[in-house]
Amino acid sequence: MKAARLNRLFHSRSGRCFDVAVDHGFFNQPGFLQGIEHMPTVIKTLVAAAPDAIQLTVGQARHLQDFPGRQKPSLVLRTDVANIYGKELPSTSYSLMIEQAMLQAVRLDAACVCVNLFQIPGAPEVNAQCVENILKLKPEADYYGMPMMIEPLVFQPNEIAGGYMVDGDLVKISHLVRQAVELGADIIKADPTDDVSLYHQVIETAGGVPVLVRGGGKVSDREILERTQGLLEQGASGIVYGRNVIQHESPAGIVAALMAMVHDGADVESALALVQST
Q1: Is the dihedral of CA 152, 158, 164, 166 positive or negative?
Q2: How many domains does the chain have?
Q3: Is there a smaller number of Cβ atoms within 10 Å at the N or the C end of the chain?
Q4: How far is CA 25 from CA 49, 81, 241, in A?
């Protein structure tokens, strides 16, 4: 059954996936809500833009699954919630798993679940919680035939980067990706490296597990499109972008541009033209 669900995620033409992450409200950070204050409107816009998948929480998945018909993005269900994204780590940091995650995913008709694997300076206990979460999810994922996407995230120190900012060090990213593979990931959602030309080494570390690259903080259209082109050329199996889509002045335009790059090999200039014309 995992193969059947994976077929709903990865495009038949390119074998790649573009997943739009809209699970930011789970983490109780006000800055994360810009552009997604009214979720029914956000989901309606994204469904019309037609990425391959939309990543949502258990409380918001209904806005996607209430749409009638078969031609809509697949659901990627976020299964864990954490409190580690602010400028200072709280005195008690955590990454907690929703109850009966796989059963909830099946009931919501998800094509995949997503779980974090954090590496945070000053918070080793959160990494331990993430590993424990994944160890519990793995046998359930196999039992229910549900693909498990592990999201290895290498943080910069919170006080420097304000949380949730990529540490683009190749060695740190590769080692955490390798841990995700060892823990049984069916898909990996990983940070981009500072030097995109080295990303093939991350792909090699994954050992055949598809690697989708996360977008991180909001950047200019040209920067995100150039980075995307470079990552795809390095062998990435797709992208998972959030704020660079949901905070864009034209979400439909940037989705069209990124879909063209991911599935049709469009270059940066052609993609930019799509942003401006959609």
Answers
A1: negative
A2: 1
A3: N
A4: 21, 10, 15
The pairing of strands 112-119 and 187-190 is unpaired
Question: Quick one: the chain helix, strand, coil %, rounded to 5?
Answer: 45, 20, 35
The residues near 266 (Cβ < 8 Å, ≥ 6 apart) are 257, 260, 274
For 140, other C-beta atoms within 10 Å of its C-beta total 16
Tokens encoding 177? 């990706």
Count the Cβ atoms, other than its own, within 10 Å of residue 56.
29
Q: Tokens at residue 231, please?
A: 């990552």
DSSP secondary structure code for residue 198 in this structure: G
Residue 162 pLDDT: 61
Provide the CATH number for the domain around residue 184: 3.20.20.70
User: What pTM does this model have?
Assistant: 0.94
| Model confidence at 40: pLDDT above 80 | yes
For residue 10, pLDDT over 80 is answered with yes
Using CA atoms, how far apart are residues 84 and 272, in angstroms rounded to an integer?
Answer: 34
Beta-bridged to residue 56, according to DSSP, are 77
Domain span including residue 253: 2-277
User: Residue 184: which of 141, 222, 244, 226 has the closest Cα?
Assistant: 141
